[in-house]
Amino acid sequence: MDLLLFQKILLSLIFAIVVVSKLRGKRFTNLPPGPFPYPIFGSWIEIGNNLDQLILSNYAKKFGNLFRVKMGQLNIIVISSKELAKEVFLTRGVEFGSRSRNIVYDIFTGEGQDMIFTEYGEHWRKMKRIATVPFFTKKSVQQYHGAWEAEAAAVVEDVKKNKEAATNGIVLRMRLQLMVYNNLYKSMFDKRFESEEDPLYVRVKDLNGQRSKLGLSLEYNFGDFVPILRPFIKGYLKICKEVTATRLNLFKDHFIDERKKLISTGGREINKCGIDYLFEAQEKGEINDAHVCYIVENMNIAAIGTTVWALEWAIAELINNPHIQNKLRAEIKSVLGPTAQVTEPDNQKLPYLQAVIKETLRFRTIVPLLLPHMNPENTKLGGYDIPARSRILVNAWHIFNDPANWKKPEEFRPERFLEEESNVEVNGNDVKYFPFGMGRRSCPGMLSSMAVLGITLGRLVQNFEMLPPPGQDKIDMTAVNVQFGMYLFKHSTVVLKPIIMS
């Protein structure tokens, strides 16, 4: 009897959802084309959880540069042309300037109390203004580039001391990850971790890793797309809440409160760092404790993972293309001389180094679909009706690899940025290339990211011949596509043979 009642309730619920969906659909007479949307589940039945750039690129060939994928109750609008990307990011940047959060990121961000995933409006403007001065300006690069150079130098010295590096090779990623953490924590808290074994570093890295794994996974998409399936991910969401609470408490207890205590005692001369600016804004009543924690949370994810991924891809490409590695090394030696180490001011004197970084960010698009945008109100785009609160995905990978935009895009060729694309910059000055996004919601960390990439790659290339491990001709470039990123499937072992600088 109970089972029969349950079946009746379930069928009634499904019928009601279908009727409501059809009634809602009548408001829109010209929706974009796309794969067939089945009742209740939409195109999820056909596509599944893995909505990545390759699948969407194939759909673009079938349905055009603007199409709709109905995933359960969610409208996903996919943009695959530079012209439409410009309209979404720039021309109508306010209209499409909000973020679309899924149920997991609602948990991670306190339903948009952060800076990255909040909707466009006063809160976002305030959070961005407060965070920009300490972290995202040319002045902040000038303030911290010496520390970044010191961290890169420490990487070089540690690798030279490790005899395995020059013979069997090491997983360089692990040491680079520590470097990136120290770059961030120096600017944020005026702190650094002493080694990969530092207990606090291990704890922070572990919790950030858990958060990243939970957020980047595609496994929970069905519960986000189809609300009636949400009970099946109840346990997953519970873990997300537990990890979030633990991380925020860790940031508060070991870093935020420790910094406040240090400032209050004034026992020694204190260098002003990023978190101090947030405290000043808090004292003025502009933000609260939660906002401070969420900015720290955002920085721990946005400033670390993507930088490490970019370094991994660039190093792998340099190893698999030794002529490019040699050409870059020759440029550095020619410009700086035989012994001077690459510094941040040198980056602009080294055009081929910049070209290698640009080509890495094009060819190995770190965030292939960027972060999702959202339109709070019903609107039109490309002549089609776009329902309110649609998730807008711009397939940057497709645009960066479109033969209509690029000469032989399937080739890793840094020279393109010195030849036919010499005027194209990473800031989106040409709308066919925007690795950090464009417009109001572009990545604010572009300046610091480019500086760190230049310093690190420059020093590795001038100090080491980087090679694949014994028995391999190349690094395995198999990629993993996740919710908001693309990274190397294997943490590659790299042989680093020291170069005598003279």
Automatic annotation (TrEMBL):
One of its GO terms (cellular component) is membrane. The keyword Transmembrane helix applies. InterPro entries: Cyt_P450 (IPR001128), Cyt_P450_CS (IPR017972), Cyt_P450_E_grp-I (IPR002401), Cyt_P450_sf (IPR036396). Its cofactor is heme. It is found in: Membrane. Keywords: Heme, Iron, Membrane, Metal-binding, Monooxygenase, Oxidoreductase, Transmembrane, Transmembrane helix. One of its GO terms (molecular function) is metal ion binding. Heme binds at residue 443. It is a single-pass membrane protein. The keyword Ligase does not apply. Belongs to the cytochrome P450 family. This is Uncharacterized protein. It comes from Penstemon smallii. The lineage of its organism: Eukaryota, Viridiplantae, Streptophyta, Embryophyta, Tracheophyta.
